[in-house]
Design a protein that fits this description.
Layout: H1 20-26, H2 32-44, H3 50-63, H4 70-75, H5 78-82, H6 91-118, H7 122-138, H8 144-171, H9 173-181, H10 184-192, H11 199-212, H12 217-220, H13 225-235, H14 242-257, H15 264-283, H16 286-317, H17 349-372, H18 379-386, H19 391-401, H20 414-422, H21 425-432, H22 438-445, H23 452-474, H24 482-498, H25 507-526, H26 535-545, H27 551-568, H28 575-591, H29 595-608, H30 613-621, H31 624-645, H32 647-672
Helix pairs in contact: 2-3, 3-6, 6-8, 7-8, 7-10, 8-9, 8-11, 10-11, 10-13, 11-14, 13-14, 14-15, 14-17, 15-17, 15-20, 15-21, 16-17, 16-22, 17-23, 19-32, 21-23, 22-23, 23-25, 24-25, 25-27, 26-27, 27-28, 27-29, 28-29, 28-30, 28-31, 29-32, 31-32
Length: about 675
């Protein structure tokens, strides 16, 4: 089996109708009746008529969006049956077959994509991409009418095929290896070079390139000067339409992935070019653009309807009606067709532009996060570490250095730091943390075709909060505007959080804002800047967050409680609050099913009760020492059980076992003799 590719941000599954997940949730059963349409459609793929094969592919493109249908399609070997149709004599069949595979790879996820690679979908897919590339070249000298017709068909096929390649490479490292070995880079760069005449194809290529250039040293060595020139041309295109904004943003992300092969003398220039693009993208008021685009669509449809009615009335005046003909009531024609949209993105110009802008802003924020953070070690690195005597030391050091997070913030290079400042990146990120424009949200919510944009706008806010977390962790207080600016930021985040009574229901938002608050409060505590959250607000957040199903949220609120508690422990008159915090953390440490959360709670307890007279009085009154003594063997057993169950929790549990597991006995000993050790969980432990 192949390996899934770990991503800092995972893109949502593609569904042209937007209801792939809804249909899956609505129908959780499968039976023989589910296989009947699949069997019929798959059988028609072998029909001698190209039109029948095309219709069968289109039907499968719709069917694969229904999650319960996927097992039946797998049993009937749908991939092996669709694969050869990528090279069908009919261009229409090729396009619809590629569209069906695109939907299958997007809705199926990692397992389906890995199965597609196992069933050798890459062979016909790469062959199709090569044929399309050759076909575009051969059509350059064709007669004009034939050239336009064939080239459009070939480019449409290439666009569908590129989306299949992107989906598979994003999920499967084996697919990326095949991409490298088959020399696909040269093919896709040729497609990208046509960005001035087919921006849709160029965008699909840019998505794919951003994926395959991530953590792929073998491919980076294949980038020649002409290849880099193609990227540069696309990234610096003067066109300012929303499609081109998205294209330039995606290419900027690809160029950032290539930073290791860019000569050092050009690094500053490239970084400035990247951040200039990201800054321009974030500067656009997406809410206002959505409102403008929606209004433009309304006016266009109104004008089209009026023109259509005028034409119908004019034609009606010239008709001689048959007395025997039954009178048909006048009905306004439905503008949107119901069949051909199964494989393609939205065709409405205004909606496409709004989606392109929102996607560009989300991508820009994700690129900035990647600039601020190192990535997870690869699977192979984990395997080497797990079999090495140095693995424990590595995990202890790495978690110590990154504050318990697998994504460790790095010190920004001088070039990146300067570009961040010059292009006002922190300010623009702060602006994006606000809630989406309420008028835009209302307009989109009332339109079925625009409704998905509400989620996109909310996602941008969440990404901005994650960016804010990284910047607060990285930049000096002075570069963030000083103590007053941090207090204003804390008030802003508190207002965002508590202005939503049901904030606990919005898991993505809660995880993002709690991460930002955690980083901000940690920075403020380290600089002795007074914090703005009241004890009541603090406990409201933590009580709601600790019941979240999201482990990240629970870790964040426990850490926030530890940070705030350690500050309060040094102040007078905080006994009751410290007792509340201590009881809360103790309950989390002993009852939370996640070893990571339990370890974070122990770490927070160590911090809160490490020093201070009020902390000592509180620990005695809540009987902290005896509770932890009772918990010590349970914690050790719980950790060992978790190690035996799953591999990934092992990586996370190592933090707890190497840190809390070693520090807890030491801490209890010091407590028993009335001494307080330093609160760092990852000090050099005596073993």
């Amino acid at each position: 089996m192949g390996k899934s590719r770990t991503k800092r941000f995972k893109r949502p599954q593609f569904s042209p109708t937007g209801d792939c997940q809804a249909e899956a949730a609505a129908n959780g059963t499968e039976g023989e009746e589910d296989d009947e349409p699949a069997a019929e459609l798959l059988e028609k793929l072998q029909h001698p008529s190209a039109e029948v094969r095309e219709c069968a592919c289109a039907g499968l493109a719709r069917l694969v969006q229904q999650r319960p249908a996927l097992p039946g399609l797998a049993r009937r070997d749908a991939v092996r049956r669709l694969g050869p149709l990528l090279l069908d004599p009919s261009l229409a069949v090729r396009e619809t077959a590629a569209g069906a595979l695109r939907n299958l790879s997007a809705c199926g996820g990692f397992e389906v994509c890995d199965d597609m690679v196992t069933k050798d979908i890459m062979t016909p897919l790469v062959a199709l991409l090569k044929e399309c590339s050759a076909g575009l070249d051969s059509n350059e000298m064709s007669p004009q009418e034939k050239k336009d017709q064939n080239r459009n068909s070939i480019e449409n096929i290439a666009n569908e095929a590129m989306n299949v390649l992107w989906n598979i490479c994003e999920c499967s490292s084996r697919a990326v290896s095949i991409f490298n070995k088959e020399g696909c880079l040269e093919i896709v760069l040729k497609y990208l070079s046509r960005f001035s005449t087919n921006v849709d194809l160029a965008i699909s290529v840019a998505y794919c390139l951003q994926t395959v250039t991530e953590d792929n040293p073998e491919l980076l060595n294949s980038f020649t000067a002409p290849a880099l020139h193609v990227l540069e041309s696309a990234m610096l295109s003067p066109v300012s339409s929303m499609d081109y904004i998205l294209l330039k943003t995606l290419v900027a992300g690809t160029v950032w992935n290539l930073k290791d092969i860019i000569p050092s003398k050009s690094q500053a220039e490239i970084i400035n070019a990247i951040l200039k693009i990201l800054s321009e993208v974030l500067e656009v008021d997406a809410g206002e653009i959505v409102i403008q685009m929606k209004e433009a669509e309304t006016q266009r449809l109104k004008a089209a309807t009026e023109t259509e009615e005028i034409q119908e009335n004019a034609n009606g005046d010239n008709l001689i009606e048959d007395d025997e003909m039954e009178e048909i009531p006048h009905k306004r024609k439905v503008r949107r067709k119901t069949f051909i949209s199964d494989l393609l993105p939205p065709t409405d110009k205004e909606l496409r532009e709004a989606i392109a802008l929102l996607t560009a802003q989300q991508t820009a924020l994700e690129i900035i996060v990647n600039m601020c953070c190192s990535e997870d070690p690869s699977d192979d690195e984990w395997e080497e570490l797990s079999s090495s005597d140095e693995s424990d030391a590595f995990m202890e050091n790495s978690f110590s250095e990154c504050g318990g997070q697998l994504l460790s913030p790095l010190c920004l290079s001088h070039e990146v730091h300067t570009a961040f400042t010059n292009y006002l990146i922190p300010k623009k990120i702060f602006e994006k943390t606000a809630f989406p424009n309420s008028i835009a949200v209302d307009l989109c919510s009332r339109s079925p075709t625009w409704k998905s944009l509400v989620r996109k706008m909310n996602t941008i806010q969440c990404r901005a909060l994650v960016c804010l977390q990284s910047l607060v962790s990285l930049l000096d207080v002075d570069h963030l505007g000083g103590a007053a600016a941090l207090q204003t930021l804390a008030q802003h985040l508190s207002q965002l959080l508590f202005s939503q009574p049901d904030f606990a229901k919005h898991v993505d938002f809660l995880e993002a804002i709690s991460s930002a608050l955690r980083a901000l409060l940690q920075t403020m505590a380290s600089k002795n800047i007074s914090q703005c959250m009241t004890p009541d607000q603090l406990m409201t957040l933590c009580t709601a967050g600790i019941h979240s199903s999201n482990t990240g949220v629970r870790v964040n609120v426990v850490s926030i409680l530890g940070i705030t508690g350690s500050v309060l422990a040094k102040e007078d008159g905080t006994l009751e609050t410290l007792k509340t915090i201590g009881c809360f953390l103790l309950e989390v440490a002993t009852k939370d099913p996640s070893l990571v959360v339990a370890g974070e709670a122990l770490d927070a307890l160590f911090d809160v009760f490490a020093d201070g007279k009020e902390a000592e009085r509180a620990s005695i009154q809540i009987k902290l020492l005896s509770a932890l003594k009772e918990f010590q063997p349970v914690f050790k057993t719980k950790g060992l059980t978790s190690l035996q169950q799953r591999c990934w929790p092992w990586l996370q549990s190592t933090e707890v076992l190497t840190g809390a597991g070693r520090f807890l006995p030491r801490w209890l000993t010091h407590m028993a003799v009335g001494r307080r050790p330093h609160s760092s969980l990852f000090d050099s432990a005596e073993t």
